[in-house]
Amino acid sequence: MQDWTGVHVVVIGAARQGTALARFLAGRGAAVILNDGRPPAELADTRAQLADLPVEWVLGGHPLRILDGAGLVCPSGGVPLDLPLVAEARRRRIALSNDSQIFLDAAPCPTIGITGSAGKTTTTTLAGRILEADGAGRRRTWVGGNIGNPLIGVLDEIAADDLAVIELSSFQLELMRSSPQIAAVLNLTPNHLDRHGTMAAYAAAKANILNFQTGSGTAVLGRDDPGARSLLPHVKGRLATFGIGAPAAAGQPLQPTSFDVHVHEGEIVLASGGERTAVMPLAEVELRGEHNLRNVLAACAIAHAAGAGAEAMRSGVRGFRGVEHRLEFVRSWGGADWYNDSIATAPERAMAALRSFEAPVVLLAGGKDKDLPWEDFARLIVKRVRHLVAFGETAGMIAGLVRSAGDGPDTISTHRGLREAVAAAAAAVSPGDVVLLSPGGASFDEFKDFAERGAFFKRWVSELP
After folding, report:
1. Helix (H) or strand (E) holding 336
2. What residues contact residue 442 under an 8 Å CB cut-off, 6+ apart?
3. Angle at the Cα of 13 from the Cα atoms of 11 and 15, rounded to 5 degrees
4. Comparing 124-133, 193-202, 227-236, 253-262, which segment has the lowest mean pLDDT?
5. Which pLDDT tens digit goes with each residue over 12-26?
6. In angstroms, rounded to a whole number, what is the distance separating the alpha carbons of residues 38 and 12?
7. Angle of helix 395-405 relative to helix 375-384, nearest 10 degrees?
8. Packing angle, helices 310-317 and 290-305, rounded to 10
9. How far apart are CA 76 and CA 425, in angstroms?
10. Does position 418 have pLDDT exceeding 60, yes or no?
11. What is the average pLDDT value for the chain, to the nearest integer?
């Protein structure tokens, strides 16, 4: 493990990733500056949590002087790399890294990394459940990363006979120069173009999860997604795949694979060496929607790459109804079932949620745009939605696109915020409907993140009389 004693490190961003990394580095003797653009008053609680460590705080801006003498600059995931402070660090040829890179370099155990434009959190959680159920030859399975728990914070507790499962976002991968031993790309569709600028740049960031593997590594790719398949040239070691249909039947032969997970005659099966092993009947999968079925297949493939068998897969998948803010059932009210899918921060994700229901839908859509294409979402709304309740910065844009797409929802209304949208949905609902919050946009026009947006949605729905 690297000796951090006396290394001058600037950590940018004092949210979960930044504070976990600052604690790790300062605890190992690094001279840490923790920088955040927010004023001191907003970070009083965070500063108190690190009061036992010699961390220098620079708040309320990003002065270039803090780079003087720096040997490393670590932008947190939410920090854009065109921030002048980061650009100046690059001009001065100061090395850049982040908590995920430092964790991968220091981890004493095998690592699994999971990325994709959609489904990362569900798949990461499921893979962790399967591997925990398997347990063969392992002391513990750790699950974290972009899922909300930076594993750099528990590095001292991880042993060589453990396993780490890490969700990795494009923001984290953008800087990465290491790859996990098992690396999975679920799918690759337009997302975060406000950050990356182009789809090519976004795909290049995602490809870093594979780029630094060796011949002993394993890549797990989603066959059903053209974007994931396009990363095949980046595979250096074993290849494992997953998809709903068998590879030949789906017309998706890639290259000789170690194994494939798919659906055959109503069962999830593991295909290897010309033989199929039954994993479990589809009827036992409790997650809604075809996109979630792909997440289950992906989790099984990832876990099998780490040595898990069919019994552990069944044990991990059975009883799993999803994670918070992902097609999460909230309550029945007004004769309708209300669902929270606040995690859907891109139109593609919201489309997958819409396809999960056959009942008439009252859709709450909106939030902040990430420079993504919305036209296909608008056309699907015309086909699937009975009442459209648009809210936030994108409300007018979404409503206009839907009206231009043809005769669709019975009513379309626009609202400044989510609370007004909940009230409008309650007024529009009829028995037998599904009321779905699946915004398609980011939360930053009104909330600090999608989790806060989902929490307020659930609160306001629970308060309906």
Report:
1. strand 336-340
2. 345, 367, 368, 369, 370, 450
3. 120
4. 253-262
5. 999 999 999 999 999
6. 11
7. 70
8. 140
9. 37
10. yes
11. 93
